[in-house]
């Protein structure tokens, strides 16, 4: 009798396991179907949506407890769109921004004799020409599309309003061969060419030497010129995406400022998602550090705010993170967690849990500790007010270049 009962129990357990397994499989397929239907529904209603799967996201319901929950959910939000100049490229002809319709016109390399190297960056080496009038920016082998984009952006800007003027473009044949051997092996780089861009030579003084010696009036003058360049490029539908001191050339003798390095320049289209690996760490806007892809011209205004604060406080950079997460930590240390929290909730963004643990109790600070004996007449009330209106998490509330130009700081004596 006992073996019979034992046998029966084993059979029942076995049947239950099979049944449970069957239910799990069924559940999986039903859930997939529901997800598909839901996605279709959302797509119909919204311009864009985000699916966070099993990612950790901040749950607005639990936010008062500062807790994180691991939820499987859909987060839906409309694309965020620039407050200004949002429709410029929609109104423009397609041939302004569509790189497939653009062919580079190459000049003659024999017109230029390169002399000593005067600069270099991630993407190029820059040489002075023998005649000391021009510089040659020799681009490192990169995709043809990226080269086209820099040239097209420079052509649209035409060197007006403190943007560097492109004079010529030529192919460097020796380099072309080198380029082919190096990067064309990479499948992304079909059609590899090494190209040189020719610009007017600006007798630039290194910012580390120049900025600490600028007077109050000179700072005001140059910052105004930089804002003019930014407002102009934004009005042309172009984001710079790498505003920082080494990309701002200043010929101090002639009081001339030129915004250079349009290598990360990009045409703005409302709601479009862009790569967030742009800008240099100390100048990266919070939205880039939070992986918000539908950013706009306002990333340049954050970078301008950082640059301006650095000049005014006579410090190299005000937020110096050792990596991207730490960069955000440095920002929150100054601007506090509460405003960031609001911004995350409103934009359905999430914060890395490790960063959250570090920053969750950070209080907003004012900028007065940055003021010292050396900078006190430059870092006046108006300058600090301008910094505070530029360095805000919410890119919609950040001043635009035009608004910054109208700020009291530029009106005072
Ligand atoms: N027209 C110019 N006149 C003088 N110096 C220049 C000029 N263009 C570039 N440079 C110098 O070369 C450096 C690198 O040029 P940039 O355009 O910023 O290239 P990258 O994309 O490699 O950073 C600049 O930081 C600057 O010091
Ligand atoms: Mg540069």
Automatic annotation (TrEMBL):
SUPFAM superfamilies: Protein kinase-like (PK-like). GO terms for biological process: regulation of cell cycle. Keywords: ATP-binding, Kinase, Membrane, Nucleotide-binding, Serine/threonine-protein kinase, Transferase, Transmembrane, Transmembrane helix. Its EC number is 2.7.11.1. Pfam families: Pkinase. Residues 112-410 form the Protein kinase domain. It catalyses: L-seryl-[protein] + ATP = O-phospho-L-seryl-[protein] + ADP + H(+); L-threonyl-[protein] + ATP = O-phospho-L-threonyl-[protein] + ADP + H(+). The chain crosses the membrane at residues 12-30. SMART domains: S_TKc. GO terms for cellular component: cytosol; nucleus; protein kinase CK2 complex. CDD domains: STKc_CK2_alpha. GO terms for molecular function: ATP binding; protein serine/threonine kinase activity. The keyword Calcium does not apply. This is non-specific serine/threonine protein kinase. It comes from Anaeramoeba ignava (Anaerobic marine amoeba). The lineage of its organism: Eukaryota, Metamonada, Anaeramoebidae, Anaeramoeba.
